[in-house]
Design a protein that fits this description.
Elements lengths: L1 H6 L9 H4 L4 H6 L4 H29 L10 H36 L7 H9 L1 H10 L18 H4 L3 H29 L12 H32 L13 H18 L2 H15 L6 H14 L15 H29 L8 H24 L1 H7 L3 H31 L5 H27 L14 H30 L46
Membrane topology: Multi-pass membrane protein
Pathway: Energy metabolism; oxidative phosphorylation
InterPro entries: Cyt_c_oxase-like_su1_dom, Cyt_c_oxase-like_su1_sf, Cyt_C_Oxase_1, Cyt_c_Oxase_su1_BS, Cyt_c_oxase_su1_dom, Cyt_c_oxidase_su1_bac
Length: 542
């Protein structure tokens, strides 16, 4: 028992043999309670799901390379678009950011581990059967659901048995998210090193603290929506069945009350990573720290009152349209504060452009583009024309694929020397950045024009007038997909195997924070005695 107490920074700090022991073999991973191991497992799981979801995207774009049906039936095409969305959101982006949180939050606040180590293990392992059930839908009678990732009624009430496995998978992933969030909240609020007040927290921890509250608030709402769908399917209720007095529009309200905060759940941790990377490579303090904290909190609060901007086409009253239109445009204000502060941090800094900084600057570029198209879609009269077109696909891929993924890449290149103990190959990193940035824009920018010309989403075929842009989009998407395979095989795998130049304790001249006060690679146990901090709470004294 004393060993467990020691691990959490309490009691007697004499190391006994049992305490110093690092588990080996399969037990280390299956029964993992160390935050670093669990963070690694989350990141590997997310990477696997990213490749699975990316393979689906490649099939979708191969089908749309030219008009007519080439490779798949329209029904299977819709199954692919549905599962691509669900896998990328619940299987790739969210677990990847939880992996970053597991690895970095205890290191950044000087904690020995996460607050609830065994729950941390459980929240990870729930994801594996959930992923199997999601992907397994393709092998069930009738194939995977073809409802779109939103799972709108009445389509979701008419699907085969794979809809039920998808609902169960979402429940498991939701439970995993809630447990992970509670763990992060308790860790940040209760386990900070003495002297690290909330307003000295690293920005990544602030972003995750607020994200975790969002997750705890909205995942039960999604659970309610899919449970009501399940009841309609099997237990004779009529929540969404209009033939028996139900209301399919009610499903949309419940779903988007979850769905819009979910969008910020996928971008706020990215803001946190970028707010760590830019000061390090500009060699300056983050400009306007307090305003950044308030901006993240404002975005989170406002995200609860804008859900129906996804529903302008459902025929809501003009008063409702105006409210949701103005509330949506209001979110642009705290978001612009963040972009301004990042730019001000770089202003007159001693900037160098190693790969993490390239991805951070690339993030700002694509995020601002995605934000502007979001403002356009916030205008109800414009949205009525563009709803359900490729313009919307372009918008959310700019914000989610580009912004969230680029932030993850920035975070990976920034912290992987601390994780693996070796430096990644800088030339390969820069190739990955330029290859990704160019191919991404070739793939998704023309979608704006396709949407403005009226090409609808989720269609396996299209008229001849859309052929040229679709061919360009498919080529760009293929190159973007290959770039990520290059990243995993030529950058991630060599660093995981320890191939490369040995990383110093702090490889970045301008990086500050407690994570750079431990050796590279970070030892299995860190901060068993809470560190004594200097006045800035970024360095250990003594």
């Amino acid at each position: 028992m004393s060993a467990v107490l020691d691990n959490h920074g309490h009691g007697d700090h004499t190391l006994d043999d049992h305490h110093a022991h690092v588990p080996t073999g399969w037990r280390r991973w299956v029964f993992a309670t160390n935050h670093k191991d669990i963070g690694t497992m989350y990141l590997l799981f997310a990477s696997t799901m990213l490749l699975v979801g990316g393979a689906m995207a490649m099939v979708i774009r191969a089908e749309l390379f030219e008009p007519g049906l080439q490779f798949v039936t329209p029904e299977f095409f819709n199954q692919l678009t549905t599962m691509h969305g669900l896998i990328m959101i619940f299987g790739a982006i969210m677990p990847a950011f939880v992996g970053f949180a597991n690895w970095m939050v205890p290191l950044e606040i000087g904690a020995s581990d996460m607050a609830f180590a065994r729950m941390n293990n459980f929240s990870f392992w729930l994801l594996v059967p959930a992923a199997v059930m999601l992907v397994g839908g393709f092998f069930m009678p009738g194939g995977a659901p073809s409802t779109g990732w939103t799972m709108y009624a009445p389509l979701s009430l008419q699907m085969g048995m794979s809809m039920d496995s998808t609902i169960l998978a979402i429940h498991l992933m939701g439970a995993s998210s809630i447990m992970g969030s509670i763990n992060i909240i308790v860790t940040i609020l209760n386990m900070r090193a003495p002297g690290m007040t909330l307003m000295k927290l690293p920005m990544f921890c602030w972003a995750w603290l607020i994200t975790a509250y969002l997750l705890v608030a909205v995942m039960p709402v999604l659970a309610g929506a899919v449970t009501m769908t399940l009841m309609d399917r099997h237990f004779g209720t009529s929540f969404f069945n209009s033939a028996n007095g139900g209301d399919p529009i009610m499903y949309q309200h419940i779903f988007w009350f979850f769905g819009h905060p979910e969008v910020y759940i996928m971008i706020l941790p990215a803001f946190g990573i970028i707010s760590m990377v830019i000061p390090a490579f500009a060699r300056k303090k983050l400009f306007g720290y307090a305003s950044m904290v308030y901006a993240i909190a404002s975005i989170a609060i406002l995200s609860f009152i804008v859900w129906a901007h996804h529903m302008f086409a459902t025929g809501m009253p003009v008063t409702g349209q105006l409210f949701f239109m103005y509330a949506t445009m209001l979110i642009a204000v705290p978001t612009a504060v963040k972009v301004f502060n990042w730019t001000a941090t770089m202003w007159r800094g001693s900037m160098t452009f190693e790969t993490p900084m390239l991805f951070a600057v690339g993030f700002i570029f694509v995020f601002v583009l995605g934000g502007f198209s979001g403002l356009i879609l916030a205008l109800a009269p414009v949205d009525l024309q563009l709803h359900g077109t490729y313009y919307v696909v372009a918008h959310f891929h700019y914000v989610l694929v580009a912004a969230a993924l680029f932030a993850m890449f920035a975070g990976y290149y920034y912290w992987c020397p601390k994780w693996t103990g070796v430096m990644y190959n800088e030339t390969r990193g820069k190739i990955h950045f330029w290859w990704s940035l160019i191919s991404f824009n070739v793939a998704f920018f023309p979608m704006h024009f396709l949407g403005l010309a009226g090409m609808p989403r989720r269609y396996a075929d299209y008229p001849m007038q859309f052929a040229d842009f679709n061919m360009v989009v498919s080529i760009g998407a293929l190159f973007f997909g290959v770039a990520q395979v290059y990243f995993f095989f030529f950058i991630v795998l060599p660093t995981m195997r320890g191939k490369g130049e040995k990383a110093p304790q702090n490889p970045w001249e301008g990086a500050e924070g407690l994570e750079w006060e431990v050796p590279s690679p970070a030892p299995f146990h860190t901060f068993e005695t809470p560190p004594k901090l200097d006045a800035t709470a970024t360095r250990i004294i003594g």
